[in-house]
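Annual report, structural modelling task.

Input specification for the protoporphyrin IX containing FE complex:
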Amino acid sequence: MKKLKDFIVNSRVWRSFFRHGWPDNPLDRSLIMTTNVFFHLHPVRVNKRSIKALYSFGLGVITTIMFVVLSITGILEMFYYVPSVDTAYFDIITLQTQVPFGQLLRNMHRWSAHLMVLTAVLHMVRVFYTGAYKRPREFNWVVGVVLLILTLGASFTGYLLPWDQLAFWAITVGTSVAGYEPMFGKLIQKLLLGGAEVGQASLTRFYGLHVMVIPGLLLLIISLHLWRVRKDGGLAANEVKDEIETEVENA
Ligand code: HEM
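The model returned the following structure:
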């Protein structure tokens, strides 16, 4: 058995996956934290206050999880949905009534979307309340504002896709409101609709924005946001010294 284990562990295939042996010393253990893309999010040492559930309420993490759920359920919905004014409405009805777990899939996508908007806003309120927008995190605050706009954009573009009365009139009203913006309103309205009123061109554009452009940008910018959290020294609470650290410094 040991021979087999040695053979596997020393093989080129194994070593191409795992470059180091077991982390059985402090240096290797901290290397795991600093070189692994998933663990890298957590600093090697953190202030106790920053990991208290009631400090961040985990709102940023919940928002990230909602994005992952939306991506997975959205890809599955794409298997059944064609963005055509002739079929879109019936595709959704078929998804809900004929496809196994179709209703669950649609509801998971819908509720996660509502929740993502809610938690992104609450996360912003939490960041403001704890003063985490201040130096050196002001850039990440701006990145966050872009994320919020993209999240709202994803919600808005998804609204048209069921192609029912609610969707049609909500987008008619929404794009008309955009049209009243004094400088670029009319241009934005025309670019979004692809014509004078909601029609096939609008559905194609909203679909493209909803399944490719906005999720792609969100993925890229959420990655930047999380990387900046790490580079800015973890959560702002880390800057408050632990009682024990203060005691050591004063001793
Ligand atoms: C798609 C939307 C967003 C996602 C997925 C997201 C994700 C996260 C995560 C996972 C964290 C670290 C843990 C936590 O604080 O819960 C974080 C921190 C942070 N976020 Fe967001 N965020 C989003 C939107 C925003 C918005 C709208 C703002 C503000 C305008 C913002 C500003 C910040 C700042 C400044 C930090 C550092 C907080 C600190 O040091 O205490 N984020 N974000």
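Residues 54-229 form a domain with the Cytochrome Bc1 Complex; Chain C fold (CATH 1.20.810.10).
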